Structure prediction request, 617 residues.
Amino acid sequence: MDIKSELRKSWIIMMKEFKQIFRKKMLIIPLFMFPIIMIVFFGYGMGGSIKNVDILIVNDDTGMASSSLVQEIGSYIPKDSDIKMFSITYTKDMAQSEAERKIDAGLYKAVLIIPQDYSERVAKNESVTLTLLTDSSDTTSSGIIVNFMQQLLAKTRSISLNVPEIYGNLKYLDFLTPAVIALTIFFGTVQSTGYAIAGEREDGTIVRILMTPVSKWAVILGKTIHQLILQLIRAVILILGATVILGVTMNGSWLLVALVLTIFTFGSVGLGIAISAISEDMTSFQQLSLFFTLPSMFATGVFYPLSSVPDWMRWIAYTMPLTYANDAMRIIMVKGQGLSFIARDIFILIIFGVLYFAIGVHLFRREA
Amino acid sequence: MEPIIEARDLTKVFISRRMKVTAVDHVSLEIYKGEIFGMIGPNGAGKSTTFAMMSTLIKPTSGSIRVSSFDAEKEATKIRQIIGVVPQQYSLYSDLTARENLELMGNLYDVTKKVMEERINYYLKLVNLETHADRFTGGFSGGMKQRLSVISAVIHDPEIIFWDEPTTGLDPQTRQAIWKLARKFNKEGKTLIFTTHYMEEADKLCDRVAIMNDGRLVALDTPENLKKKSSSVSLEEVFIHLTGEEIRD
Ligand SMILES: Nc1ncnc2c1ncn2[C@@H]1O[C@H](COP(=O)(O)OP(=O)(O)O)[C@@H](O)[C@H]1O
Ligand SMILES: [Mg+2]
Prediction:
């Protein structure tokens, strides 16, 4: 196979796809409007409760008051639930910076630091300050935890709560938007790859393409690169739109966003090819693709943190690539963290991507 | 005469909804260089499937094909370079213009830009589409689509042309135009293979005719010989004589 000629053919296919997409003006709505509508609706319409959230209590005090406080936190069960709100780990003698690192690493949703002289001061009715650190990339949990602690401590007037903002002022929108973008890319890629292949199969045009000396690799490569470019442009526009119009936070590197979405789109193209290969026509493609994509929307923690769902649901989420894309996108956009923090997500996305793509290419037949 | 296509014992079995369908059943034939070769038979006879195998679109379940001495299994790419296929479906991009459809094909066949533009203009004129060159094919009539479909298969100047039912469902005028093109291509030395279920067209146009029924090759000869052998006046009668069946449509 002559690589240069293959690449040239891929280029031709890619340009054809672009020509076609620019002529479908109606596509603007699903491409750009749906995700914005989703962000606005869910962003302003959702709250939530949490359970079994991992928190760390750094207790440098040995007195009575702190142990009863800790006990109260540990045994708290929300009214509408029968599961404890927190799952607590205890330690002492830990610097705030170290505690912040633990949150960054995703080990805890919050850290409560109790100072050494807490019990003494409470007994003497002197003022005392506790420090609460929260994982601000998960604004739902953070908001609820801060709220809970404030109410709990308000019972004793002398105690105040210091909540340093680790990553600036965060809202649910900041939590939601990175995942909605990942979700949008996922749905969009699977759908339009499928349309491009199942649709061309139905129109018979793919037969004509495959009757030329072009290899199936060149066809797939052309369509894949088209999707990568299209989806990246889409992501950039959506992120810019969300930051400008809705004031959503974008703290991280655009390059990392591009990296995560490129890998994720690659796998989604593979899934789209695979689904279109096993569908007989457009109708069965649409049904099958919903079967493969819709569960991801609800199971992967787009709208609420995975830490607040039951274990069995979390395990389902772990089998879906969107879970890792969501996580990586939040780490980049909200926390502004670097490559080493998303390495695990990227690694898993690469595995999914290669797997889906291999299945897609394998199932893609020349035969009409 | 020199064979340009040799099919040996071609068989294709489709498995669809757990049912085995033998679309083509042990068909062997030779097609000679420079001839107009027709395949006739009712719907479902296996014509398109035979075409698809000869044009390397699908692989036979068993049997072998050589096209211009290339092996269809091992040298499919080389075969694709020298054949032009007009599928039974029009299969044009409705959101591309006529010219863009042609350019796409030319580019995929590696035709140089200058030659391609010359050929595109020439062929568009030949089939009376030059005024529609820059319109989307989505709005074309069936006849216009078929004419475009036919010329988009010859942009790379192939040696062999496959036409699958090029005249089905078209008005008499367009059918005339298509047959005129067939003769023209043939005069240029191209081998032309087509399927039809209009038997009288095959009679008029073909050097030789293969009659297919139920996946099998029932007869293969010149129209004259076929008629003589069964003392019939038309290929339609020949078909009935050979199969004992009326043509179903
Ligand atoms: N892709 C396919 N899958 C299953 N069956 C098929 C397929 N293509 C053709 N067939 C069947 O093979 C037989 C021959 O079809 P075809 O070659 O299209 O006949 P013709 O072109 O002579 O009308 C028919 O019974 C048809 O239903
Ligand atoms: Mg047919």
Q: What stands out?
A: DSSP finds nine helices and ten strands in chain B.
